[in-house]
Design goal:
By secondary structure, the chain is an alpha+beta fold. The protein has 1 helix and 4 strands.
Length: 143
Protein backbone atom coordinates (compact mmCIF):
# COMPACT_ATOMS: atom_id res chain seq x y z
CA UNK A 1 0.00 0.00 0.00
CA UNK A 2 1.07 3.35 -0.83
CA UNK A 3 0.62 6.15 1.68
CA UNK A 4 0.25 8.74 -1.03
CA UNK A 5 -3.21 7.44 -1.91
CA UNK A 6 -4.67 7.92 1.58
CA UNK A 7 -6.59 11.14 2.22
CA UNK A 8 -4.94 13.63 4.53
CA UNK A 9 -6.51 13.81 7.97
CA UNK A 10 -9.05 16.67 8.13
CA UNK A 11 -9.11 19.14 10.96
CA UNK A 12 -12.40 19.47 12.90
CA UNK A 13 -13.61 23.10 12.51
CA UNK A 14 -16.04 23.17 15.51
CA UNK A 15 -16.15 25.58 18.46
CA UNK A 16 -14.00 25.12 21.52
CA UNK A 17 -15.49 25.01 24.99
CA UNK A 18 -14.07 28.46 25.81
CA UNK A 19 -15.71 29.99 22.74
CA UNK A 20 -19.09 28.47 23.66
CA UNK A 21 -18.84 29.75 27.25
CA UNK A 22 -17.95 33.27 26.10
CA UNK A 23 -20.87 33.27 23.66
CA UNK A 24 -23.26 32.12 26.42
CA UNK A 25 -21.98 34.84 28.77
CA UNK A 26 -22.57 37.52 26.13
CA UNK A 27 -26.04 36.14 25.39
CA UNK A 28 -27.00 36.08 29.08
CA UNK A 29 -25.93 39.71 29.55
CA UNK A 30 -27.92 40.77 26.49
CA UNK A 31 -31.04 38.87 27.64
CA UNK A 32 -30.79 40.36 31.14
CA UNK A 33 -30.65 43.86 29.66
CA UNK A 34 -33.64 43.10 27.44
CA UNK A 35 -35.64 41.82 30.42
CA UNK A 36 -34.83 44.93 32.43
CA UNK A 37 -35.91 47.17 29.55
CA UNK A 38 -39.16 45.24 29.22
CA UNK A 39 -39.85 45.54 32.95
CA UNK A 40 -39.20 49.29 32.85
CA UNK A 41 -41.53 49.69 29.86
CA UNK A 42 -44.27 47.80 31.67
CA UNK A 43 -43.88 49.93 34.80
CA UNK A 44 -43.89 53.09 32.70
CA UNK A 45 -47.06 52.03 30.89
CA UNK A 46 -48.82 51.38 34.22
CA UNK A 47 -47.75 54.82 35.51
CA UNK A 48 -49.02 56.52 32.36
CA UNK A 49 -52.35 54.72 32.72
CA UNK A 50 -52.76 55.83 36.34
CA UNK A 51 -51.82 59.43 35.51
CA UNK A 52 -54.27 59.50 32.61
CA UNK A 53 -57.13 58.27 34.81
CA UNK A 54 -56.17 60.77 37.53
CA UNK A 55 -56.17 63.62 35.00
CA UNK A 56 -59.61 62.59 33.77
CA UNK A 57 -60.91 62.55 37.35
CA UNK A 58 -59.53 66.05 37.99
CA UNK A 59 -61.03 67.31 34.71
CA UNK A 60 -64.40 65.73 35.58
CA UNK A 61 -64.35 67.44 38.98
CA UNK A 62 -63.48 70.79 37.37
CA UNK A 63 -66.27 70.36 34.82
CA UNK A 64 -68.72 69.57 37.62
CA UNK A 65 -67.72 72.73 39.52
CA UNK A 66 -68.11 74.80 36.36
CA UNK A 67 -71.47 73.25 35.47
CA UNK A 68 -72.95 73.82 38.95
CA UNK A 69 -72.37 77.58 38.56
CA UNK A 70 -71.93 77.98 42.29
CA UNK A 71 -69.23 80.24 43.67
CA UNK A 72 -67.32 77.90 46.02
CA UNK A 73 -66.36 78.90 49.52
CA UNK A 74 -62.75 78.91 50.66
CA UNK A 75 -61.68 75.56 52.06
CA UNK A 76 -60.90 71.95 51.25
CA UNK A 77 -63.30 69.37 49.87
CA UNK A 78 -62.35 65.69 49.64
CA UNK A 79 -63.91 62.76 47.87
CA UNK A 80 -63.31 59.34 46.42
CA UNK A 81 -64.11 57.93 43.02
CA UNK A 82 -63.45 54.81 41.01
CA UNK A 83 -62.30 54.66 37.40
CA UNK A 84 -61.58 51.46 35.49
CA UNK A 85 -61.77 49.46 38.71
CA UNK A 86 -59.10 51.60 40.42
CA UNK A 87 -59.93 53.68 43.50
CA UNK A 88 -58.76 57.29 43.61
CA UNK A 89 -59.03 60.07 46.18
CA UNK A 90 -59.35 63.70 45.11
CA UNK A 91 -58.92 66.87 47.09
CA UNK A 92 -60.19 70.28 45.92
CA UNK A 93 -58.59 73.23 47.71
CA UNK A 94 -60.35 76.54 47.12
CA UNK A 95 -58.52 79.83 47.77
CA UNK A 96 -59.32 83.47 47.30
CA UNK A 97 -57.66 85.48 44.54
CA UNK A 98 -56.73 89.17 44.46
CA UNK A 99 -59.82 89.71 42.29
CA UNK A 100 -62.84 88.94 44.51
CA UNK A 101 -64.88 87.85 41.47
CA UNK A 102 -62.71 84.73 41.06
CA UNK A 103 -61.73 81.72 43.14
CA UNK A 104 -58.76 79.45 42.55
CA UNK A 105 -59.51 75.74 42.90
CA UNK A 106 -56.63 73.24 42.92
CA UNK A 107 -57.71 69.64 42.41
CA UNK A 108 -55.19 66.95 43.37
CA UNK A 109 -55.75 63.23 42.71
CA UNK A 110 -53.99 60.33 44.46
CA UNK A 111 -54.50 56.59 44.26
CA UNK A 112 -56.28 54.78 47.08
CA UNK A 113 -55.38 51.23 47.94
CA UNK A 114 -58.56 49.22 48.32
CA UNK A 115 -57.27 46.97 51.09
CA UNK A 116 -56.25 49.64 53.58
CA UNK A 117 -58.41 52.49 52.21
CA UNK A 118 -55.44 54.79 52.55
CA UNK A 119 -54.22 57.20 49.91
CA UNK A 120 -50.86 56.98 48.24
CA UNK A 121 -49.39 60.40 49.03
CA UNK A 122 -47.90 60.69 45.55
CA UNK A 123 -50.06 63.06 43.53
CA UNK A 124 -50.84 61.55 40.15
CA UNK A 125 -52.49 64.69 38.77
CA UNK A 126 -52.95 68.29 39.87
CA UNK A 127 -55.29 70.62 38.00
CA UNK A 128 -55.84 74.30 38.79
CA UNK A 129 -59.02 76.06 37.64
CA UNK A 130 -60.38 79.52 38.24
CA UNK A 131 -64.10 79.94 38.78
CA UNK A 132 -65.92 83.21 38.29
CA UNK A 133 -68.71 84.51 40.50
CA UNK A 134 -72.04 84.15 38.68
CA UNK A 135 -73.36 87.50 37.48
CA UNK A 136 -76.60 87.30 39.48
CA UNK A 137 -74.91 86.22 42.75
CA UNK A 138 -74.12 89.11 45.13
CA UNK A 139 -70.72 89.44 46.81
CA UNK A 140 -70.46 87.97 50.28
CA UNK A 141 -71.16 90.56 52.92
CA UNK A 142 -73.14 92.80 50.51
CA UNK A 143 -76.76 93.69 51.34
Amino acid sequence: MCRANLPAPTRNNGFTLIEVLIALAILSIALAAAMRATAMATTSAEEVKLRTYATWIAQNRAAELTARRVFPGVGVENGQTEMAGINFRWSATTNETPNTAFRKVEIAVTRTTAAAATADERKLAVLTVYLARPVNQPKQGAT
